[in-house]
Amino acid sequence: MTASDTTTTQGELEKLVSDLRGLLANKDLDAVPEIKLLRQRLDDGIHNVRESAVRAAQDAARQAKEAALAADRYAHDEPWRVAGAALAVGALVGFLLARR
Fold it and tell me: What is the four-CA torsion angle of 25, 28, 33, 37, rounded to 10 degrees?
C-alpha cells in the first residue's frame, strides 16, 4: 500500500465517520437510549483506531530509520563493495539504455 493509497483510505474513512456522526447527532434521536450507546461506541472506536494508526506510523518511521542507519553503517564498513555494486548497476542501466 502506497502513501497515496493510505491517504485516500484515511480520507474516505474520515468522511464516513463524519457522515455517521452527522447522522447520529440528529437531536430527534436523543430520546433513543441505543443511539446514545452507539454514539459512545463510535467515539471509543474512533479513538482506538486513531491510536492504532499513530502507533503504526511511529513503528514504520522507526523501522525506516533503523534500515537507513543499517545501510549507512554497511556503506561505511564496506565502501568498496558499495562502490562496486553502484558501478555494476550503473553499467547495466547504461547498457540497457544504449540498446534503445
Answer: -10
Cα–Cα distance measured from residue 24 to residue 36, given in angstroms and rounded to the nearest whole number: 9
> Residue 55 and residue 75: Cα distance in Å, rounded?
30
Q: Are 42 and 24 in contact (CB under 8 A)?
A: yes
- What is the number of residues in the chain? 100
Which residue's C-alpha cell is 440528529? 26
Residue 6 has which C-alpha cell? 493510505
Residue 2 C-alpha cell reads as 502506497
Count Cβ neighbours within 10 Å for each residue of 55-92 and write b for 16 or more, e otherwise. eeeeeeeeeeeeeeeeeeeeeeeeeeeeeeeeeeeeee
The SS3 of residue 45 is helix
pLDDT tens, residue by residue, 57-97: 999 999 999 999 999 999 999 999 999 999 999 999 999 99
